Amino acid sequence: MVFGLALSPLLIAYVVACFRNPLRYALPPYCVLIPFGSAFKVVPGAFGGVSSLLGLLLGAALVTQLVTTRRGSARLPLAVPVWLAFLALSGFSLFWSIAPGASFLDFRVLASQVLLVVALVLMRFDDRTLRLFATSLMAGGLAVVMYGFAQITLLGGLPGKRTGPGDGPARFGDDLLGANNEAAALLLPLAIAASRALSESGRSRWIHSTITLLLLVGILMTGSRGGLLGAVTVFIVVLWLGIAPRARKVTVAVTAAVLLAVVLIFQPAGFGKRQVDNSTSSSGRTDIWLVGAQSCSKYCLFGAGWGDFPTVYEQELASTPEARVQPRGATFEPHSIFLLAVIELGIPGLVLLLVGLAVSLVSALRLPAAMRAPPVAALLSTMVSSFFLSNMKYKFFWAVIAYVAVCETVAAVQAARQKPTLLATGRLVPEAQEVP
Prior knowledge:
Blueprint: H1 2-20, H2 22-25, H3 27-33, H4 50-69, H5 79-92, H6 100-122, H7 127-153, H8 179-185, H9 187-199, H10 202-222, H11 225-241, H12 246-266, H13 273-277, H14 285-294, H15 296-299, H16 309-316, H17 337-365, H18 369-386, H19 395-417, E1 421-422, E2 428-429
Antiparallel strand pairs: 1-2
Helix pairs in contact: 1-4, 3-4, 3-7, 4-6, 5-6, 5-17, 6-19, 7-9, 7-10, 7-19, 8-10, 8-11, 9-10, 9-11, 9-18, 11-18, 14-16, 17-18, 17-19, 18-19
């Protein structure tokens, strides 16, 4: 208490600074803490972690700025109303939910994420604040990987080793977001770092190349096969869309392929072992998907209610004899956002999810060439990993959606300002774009 009282003046000053400039003071620390999940709990409850509290502060500061300054974004991306419709359908599903209590708890989390994305998109970002946003996301990924290195080298190994039947050794991220979700959370930072390593020059290129390598090692530390597939997607898209000489792209592609092959073959310090040893195993996903398919006749039309897949799984497991009972328990998440949407929200929810992702992808592909690679790589890799994960309640999923939408609004501002200059020769030359 004494320590808290001593820090209270600094805390009050920080809160005031956040309300004056949320994009500079509230957004960066929030982004840095995204990969840590609820590791730093202050009070009990779904919103009791430091990351969630910072998110609430960020949301309040953004709304205050929008109300008081009335200087919002000049363009509203099409994806925003689609995700708001998805949120509205999730809320309405409370009226027919088979487990209203679970639906309400999960709806609170979803609402906080979607509304924060909307508030961010409505803010007037520029090139500088967009780069700060991206750098903060990258710094969060780097920070959590360094935390994993510290666990291995200084803290006696990765904590939270599972000892239940059928479980293997602890994996990086088990005590944070869960190993698979931790790998997915590193995909957006990896896309940003890899793109900068390819497109920038001098010291910046080497710094971001090192960060890219560390983030890739972090994904390998999680043992997530979906995360590794997402990382490969990131590199393919960055090499495809990145602005760099062809020779540099070829060098980077060969280097990345060789390093990945060496890790998977020789498995130094055990990295890559799980991806190779369990390459033919679904880790129980196919059995969970079988139960979801069995329940489709009941729930695929209108849905069981947001957040109710675990209840559906528990009810339908006995009537699906071909699905094994998993050793780690009886109720499970669907391990796919697409199965989650169709079981919990029915066909309308699945359609809104697909439309939201498709609109975001089209928007990312239409960005200027200098801005295109990171958001496209992050979105496509997240979609790949989300086929195996039900991660819509996690901040990193919505950080990708927000990043794509903010890039779109910044590109719109750049296009509006890019008035051609009529030269004496009669040619029209647009102003140069700044790479975010």
